[in-house]
Amino acid sequence: MKKLIALFAVSALASTAATAGVALSGAASVSYDDNGSAASSTSYDADITVVGTTGGTTFTYSMDVDRASPATTGADLSSTIGPITIAADMHQVDESNVDDGDGDAKADTDDTGVTISLDAPIGDATIGLDNSGNVTVSGTWAGVTVSHTSKKAGDTTTAAVAIAGMDVSVTNKAGATTWTMGTTVSGVDLTLASSKKITAAFGLTGNTMTVTHTPAVAEATSTATTYSVSAVKAYSTVAISRDLTSGAALSATYSSLDDSLTLKASVAF
Q: Which residues are registered as beta bridge partners of 70?
């Protein structure tokens, strides 16, 4: 009997050690949308993420489970060996390729790949190279975080900085520049983007109201690689969210686009 107890203790210890580097998280929600003058609808969402870590290596796997056949949504492996980090995106995302007016790509693109990064002692810069031949140099100098990626389809440069309580980010992609700017005024978090989208968040964590104005979208014709984009008028949304003592959260969102109200109950762990 003593040998049996000892064997059970060793087995339990081995199982604990095997799962010590595994973290499980997830989220689930149910939403009711009155859809304005259209028929109301109810939707569900549930996701699970598993992260396994051993030494300098991490594997992250996520899946969408609110369906008859759960589907993988991500599979990423990252390993650091000295100053070198190797990251592999192993999941090919099944993108939407429907001509429904929102500019979907006409065909899926392969977004799997491997990136090798070198944390080089060149002014705290990190140099990365992926299997497509793209080279990225990034780092932080004098409080400004800069990243530049050299690509065949056009270079991308991003700079971000926090100055006097204001967060500014600027991105230039193939010659087109976009930016976002965020700050807090009298307890209100304000965000302004170059697209003219404005967001204001009021309240404290767990009890907030967010007001967003989204500018109009102009119609765009289809190209060789993407479908057309339908024109959408400017609209605003008001979202009120509150955390409950049960661990769940409730939110109500009104949209002036279709005069709809969406009620959502969610939980995350």
A: none
